[in-house]
Amino acid sequence: MDTTMTLYTFAASQSSEKVRWLLDAAGLRYHEVRLTPFLHLPQNRRISGGFAPSVPILEVDGETLQDSTRILEWLEVHRAPFELIPADAPERAAVMQAEARFDMAGPHVVRLMYATLLEQPELVRRLWTQDAKPLHAGLLTVGFPVLKRIFSRGLGITPAALHYSERLVERALRELDRAAEQGRRYLVGDRLSAADVTAAARFAPLICPDEHPVFSQPEYRDALAPLTSKWEARPAFDWVRAQYHRHRRVHLVRSRQPRAAGAGTTLSRARLRVV
Fold it and tell me: Is residue 272 scored above 70 in pLDDT?
């Protein structure tokens, strides 16, 4: 079946990037709809029929799927053969176990990322509004001080939580370090799998690969440097960048957003176009 899917995402979402990559790597056609954080909640309710705030959401074959792992498992069944999950039972188990481990690291990457980014609130505001319609961008800008406090509280950004997150991120990085040091291109087997896509997508906010439409931007990289500089020389960083370079065969298409007189630098709009 070659039904075009609709994928609802955020530009700067690890889970959105994971599912985009899975669909691209499988050669499945989809239409991406970028939502605006916080202002997406009414649309999420309309799409999913519930109040769950998370993205991505995939609409396909009359179904609405939320949660990147659930989407992955649906694709395995309904778009078989789905080559990013091996048919061999032991390899499949190893891939799904690795996928789960790196999914668990994802929220801790986000906590560390925003603990650093929120020191530059103007950058965060632009990050959240880069795909917004003018009215939505204006509403989010007005409400940003309150939303920033709610968001920070929701992430649990405290010294103890940041210490815990850094330990878990270090543990996941060590797994990628070992793969790189052993000369393994892939975490399981000898070809790209959902494990590799998940690991690379989850760490993209820290590693800032050239092929990512948001995290490659110079303003973003500069803002993350105080956090990531201590990890830059790790083999894990090279491993993730190599996955992006080999397997995100895309053109990065950018266009500058309009800027009001006297406003600061804006993030560019960016899209990944598969080639």
Answer: no
Tens of pLDDT, residue by residue over 173-221, are 999 999 999 999 999 999 999 999 999 999 999 999 999 989 999 999 9
Q: Which residues pair with 273 in a beta bridge?
A: 251
Q: Which residues of 211-249 are buried (b: 16+ CB within 10 A; e: fewer)?
A: bbbbbbbebbeebbeebbeeeeebbbbebbbebbeebbe
- Model confidence at 256, pLDDT cuts 50, 70, 90, reads very low
pTM of the model: 0.88
What distance in Å separates the CA atoms of residue 270 and residue 275, rounded to the nearest whole number? Answer: 15
CATH of domain 5-78: 3.40.30.10
Residues 6+ apart with CB under 8 A from 89: none
Query: ∠112-114-118 over CA atoms, to 5°?
Result: 135
| Region for residue 196 given its phi and psi (left: phi exceeds 0; alpha: psi -120 to 50; beta: otherwise) | alpha
Say if CB 58 and CB 75 are below 8 A apart: no
Q: Would you list the domain boundaries of the chain?
A: 5-78, 89-274
Q: What average pLDDT is seen over the chain?
A: 88
Q: Mapped to the 3 state alphabet, what secondary structure does 49-115 carry? A: CCCCCCCCEEEECCEEEECHHHHHHHHHHHCCCCCCCCCCHHHHHHHHHHHHHHHHHHHHHHHHHHH
- Cβ–Cβ contacts within 10 Å for residue 50, how many? 10
